[in-house]
Write a structure and sequence with these properties.
Oligomer: single chain
Shape: globular
Distance between the termini: 97 Å
Largest sheet: 9 strands, mixed
Helix content: under 10%
Structural class: mainly beta
Number of helices: 6
């Protein structure tokens, strides 16, 4: 490890050479000038798992290109005025212990934002999954489960991925905390990706799934996703190998000039943009005003940027980390000039330093990449789980009626799994009234806070689902319990179904500094095949059949008439796959957004800024469609992607009006501020001045839709260029928990001209429908007693000794409602039929299931990649095919108490229909 001297803050060449000699040799993290696609200033999901059905293997893409052929570049970007509008920076606030994983208070991170600035700047990055994986999951994978696993991150600092909910966060992936290394069944999600230092990072991923018979682990090769944080566009460099360039340049000046090169590090004196006060000014001076060439800068040995040296000088401003970083400058003079090469002695500096430091001492060594706090590798061949118990407990907070602390804990601290707890009105309801989901990382415990206000006052049906990591010998398990009273404390115990012993996983290849896939062809195509997804389906015929949408991603969007490109209309791009196998365009007036009680949201004290008054007073409840995806709630956005703004000098506004609504209700559309900061209100029906969502460039955005009361709403949208109408108004219905109120009447208090909320900029691509649930009747899936629903289960007569052997026989669980989705799953048949969704009433809206969250799938090409595919690791032979398909029984004696079920009227009604049909047939025959 390189020793940093804080007094002189200079490392001697000899000490540096000794350090390098003792350091393991790493591959040089050079520039990405040959990358086929540098992604910046746009929406992108990466990595996206791809399933190749012909070879039963996985690979990963950036949209439709292998991840190792792409680079995500995070440059500087700003929006509006104020420090909070430096879109590439994230400052850690005070008094937020839940953010300690990011660093100390007031330190500033390089950040790809959860909500981008204009034109999706600096970059709008997220996660997703290809539809090929979504459709394969029920038939190919045990429990329909697959994971996107982060192996490690090689870069100059730390990397974190998380969703900000204002008053809380959901962690996804972490370079240094191995408790957050898996995203379960990733769905389309946008989130923060932060970096403690600028420079080049390589995040290494693998996709894993267990075959449906439990015998095989399908695992992808390790593929690297490169992030370039700060600096100039990676494609603009001219140096491919700094060592060769340095060796080829002359060591001494040939023009007789006495020049003293220098590297100067100082706090940035300029205040041209928000956030400039946090930057460090890095200046190189060759010592002679006629020198020309290239400057190569590194942070902890990792490439930062390559800049031109003009008239002897080059200067950049970068956001260094709160911790010291070693900065080295390497000058490569222009060929044929009289200038000499020069490398500075590495110099420690941080964003905390206030004094200028000037380095004139040269180094004969270009330091190799070396993070003083390297990212640990997590890539187990198998996850051992010896104790299958998992417990969920709810404890009401003191002084509260409906706020609970939820703790999920495994008996075995090595268990890694996703979980979901749902509360239904009855066992056979489609959607839960309240739900919460999360993950168990290393340590086997997770603690969250949940608002159960929507579920109080009556017994509930409680369902607890646990989805273990594919590399463990545990299988997805679900347990249900009727008539649960939401008392001061309650909970449920579950025992995981276990595959028989043995190690079905072959050791995985260790991560290397280079991708395990072959390098791109030496003769790449002259232009990369970069997909333009900005106006996908824009020319599709409109679906006009009436439809209720209960979950999934969709956008209200402007589209040009294919026959007359200067004429525009409004439509709904529906990515929810409701009754469809792909995304479709729908007539807006054919659509109803169905909003359940699970959308109930109580304004917390942490959102006390007056801008959040659109949510009502603190402690009051409203119904909110959140700006970050909740997989159980409809997720609508607004888009002008693919539109030529040169025709619209005043930009494009979406004007929203409330045509019909419950009495004294309020509708709003807003984006929350980072970490609970002031909200950006775009539409508020209580304020006529807030009725438009303004855009001045192609935009895709999501925000919070607020409906203050249950009932029926009718909203209207039209597109304007200033006061000139671009597209005629269209209206649609929103049904908000209508079962709880009388049939609504048109609102006289809110005239049709009253504005309604308009979306704010956030770029998203299609969120795919919930993950399919495997058909439990199809052999050779793990044996389970979760068969067709029954009012009660008889006590097991199994040998009591069987429970002492976890691998003896199938586990017995209580009955699972057939139409209900476990952890967002539905069967393949239900997806085609457009089944109703599960609802999640959790205030923490997780974008997926991971180390605190996840992502919804992005529909992309299902065509097999031309790159090598994943390896299949065959299981060791099991004793018999029956044993391979059988899970151990840890709950053979469990049963459900018999009672007259609340759904007694269903068979009665069915019998009446059958008898009526029989009588009618008899009458016809007599006739």
């Amino acid at each position: 490890m390189i020793l940093i001297m804080r007094v002189k803050r200079i490392i001697s060449t000899g000490a540096l050479a000794l350090t390098i000699a003792l350091m393991p040799q790493l591959a040089w993290a050079g520039p990405d000038r040959d990358a086929e696609w540098v992604v910046t200033g746009q929406h992108v999901d990466a990595p996206i798992p791809i399933w190749h059905a012909d070879t039963h293997s996985f690979t990963m893409n950036t949209i439709n290109m292998p991840v190792e052929k792409t680079v995500l570049w995070l440059p500087k970007a700003w929006a509006g005025s104020g420090a909070q509008d430096a879109k590439y920076q994230l400052e850690i606030p005070e008094k937020r212990p839940d953010l300690a994983f990011l660093g100390p208070e007031h330190s500033v991170l390089n950040a790809a934002p959860q909500n981008p600035g204009p034109n999706n700047t600096p970059i709008w990055a997220g996660l997703g999954a290809d539809s090929s994986v979504e459709w394969a999951a029920p038939d190919e994978f045990d429990g329909s489960t697959y994971t996107l696993d982060l192996i490690n991150v090689d870069g100059p600092g730390r990397m974190e991925m998380f969703i900000d909910h204002g008053d809380s966060v959901s962690r996804f992936l972490s370079s240094h905390d191995i408790a957050y290394r898996s995203v379960y069944n990733p769905r389309h999600t946008h989130l923060f990706t932060t970096f403690t230092q600028p420079g080049r990072y390589q995040a290494r991923f693998r996709v894993n799934a267990r075959s449906i018979d439990g015998k095989t682990i399908y695992t992808s090769p390790i593929q690297s996703l490169t992030w370039q944080v700060g600096g100039s566009n990676p494609s603009s460099g001219s140096i491919t190998d700094i060592h060769q360039a340095f060796a080829a340049a002359q060591a001494q000046r040939s023009d007789g000039v006495q020049a003293q090169p220098s590297l100067t590090l100082a706090p940035n004196p300029q205040r041209e943009h928000p956030g400039d006060q946090h930057l460090t000014e890095i200046t190189f001076n060759s010592g002679h005003a006629t020198d020309q060439g290239r400057l190569w800068l590194t942070v902890n040995g990792y490439f930062l940027t390559e800049e031109p040296v003009v008239d002897g000088k080059a200067q950049v401003r970068e956001l260094l980390g709160d911790d010291d970083a070693l900065i080295q400058a390497v000058f490569i003079p222009e060929a044929g000039s009289g200038s000499a090469r020069w490398a500075s002695t590495p110099q420690a500096f941080s964003q905390r330093d206030r004094a200028e430091v000037r380095v004139t001492r040269a180094s004969s060594v270009i330091i190799e990449p070396s993070n003083p706090d390297p990212s640990p590798v997590w890539d187990p061949a198998q996850i051992s789980v010896s104790r299958p118990g998992v417990h969920v407990s709810y404890t009401r907070k003191e002084g509260s009626e409906d706020q609970y602390t939820v703790q999920v804990q495994a008996d075995d601290p090595e268990l890694r799994a996703a979980y979901k707890v749902e509360l239904f009105e009855s066992e056979y309801d489609f959607s839960p009234w309240c739900a919460i989901e999360g993950t168990l990382g290393k340590g086997g415990i997770d603690i969250q806070q949940q608002d159960l206000g929507a579920c109080m006052g009556q017994p509930m049906y409680m369902k607890f689902s646990v989805r273990p990591h594919p590399k463990s010998l545990a299988s997805m398990t679900t347990k249900g319990q009727e008539d649960v009273e939401l008392s001061s404390s309650f909970g449920m115990d579950l025992k995981l179904k276990m595959w028989p012993g043995g190690n079905p996983v072959e050791p995985a290849p260790a991560p290397t500094a280079e991708p395990l896939l072959p390098s791109p062809s030496p003769t790449p195509s002259p232009a990369p095949n970069i997909p333009d997804t900005s106006n996908d389906h824009a020319a599709d015929a409109l679906k006009t059949n009436p439809v209720e949408l209960t979950r999934g991603h969709m956008d209200l969007r402007l589209r040009a008439d294919s026959a007359a490109p200067t004429h525009y209309s409004l439509a709904l791009k529906d990515d929810s796959l409701t009754g469809e196998k792909t995304s479709v365009m729908r007539a807006i007036d054919s659509v109803t957004w169905k909003v359940g009680v699970n959308a109930r949201f109580t304004r917390p004290q942490s959102l006390s800024d007056p801008s959040y008054d659109v949510l009502g007073a603190i402690g009051e409840s409203s119904y909110v469609l959140p700006e970050t995806q909740n997989p159980d709630i409809v997720w609508p956005g607004v888009s002008t992607e693919g539109i030529d703004y040169s025709q619209f000098p005043k930009g494009i506004d979406y004007e929203l009006k409330v045509v019909e609504s419950p009495k004294d209700s309020r509708v709003a559309f807003f984006q929350g501020g980072t970490f609970g900061g002031p909200a950006k209100i775009m539409v508020d029906s209580a304020n006529p001045a807030k009725s438009r969502i303004h855009t001045d460039s192609p935009t895709h955005m999501h925000a919070n839709w607020v409906f203050s009361k249950p009932g029926h709403y009718r909203l209207q949208i039209r597109a304007l260029d200033g006061d000139k109408e671009i597209a005629a108004p269209m209206s649609w219905n929103v049904s908000v928990h209508e079962a709880a109120v009388p049939t609504p009447t048109p609102s006289s208090e809110q005239p049709s001209e009253q504005p309604i909320p308009t979306p704010s900029p956030s770029a998203d691509t299609p969120s795919v429908a919930p993950e399919p649930t495997p058909d439990q009747t199809t052999a050779p899936t793990p044996a389970s007693t979760e068969s067709a629903p029954a009012p009660a289960a008889s006590p097991s007569a199994a040998d009591p000794k069987a429970s002492e052997n976890p691998s003896a026989q199938p586990a017995t669980q209580t009955t699972t409602p057939p139409p209900s989705n476990t952890l967002g799953q539905v069967s393949a048949g239900e997806r085609l039929l457009g089944s109703r969704s599960n609802s999640s009433g959790s205030r923490r809206v997780l974008g997926g299931v991971s180390g605190g969250g996840g992502a919804a799938p992005l529909a992309a090409s299902a065509e097999p990649s031309s790159t090598p595919t994943a390896s299949e690791s065959s299981a060791a032979d099991l004793d018999s095919p029956a044993q391979a398909a059988q899970l151990s029984n840890d709950e053979a004696g469990e049963s459900t108490a018999s009672r007259i079920p609340r759904w007694w009227w269903i068979p009665a009604a069915a019998l009446a229909i059958v008898l009526g049909a029989g009588a009618a047939l008899a009458v016809r025959r007599r006739g």
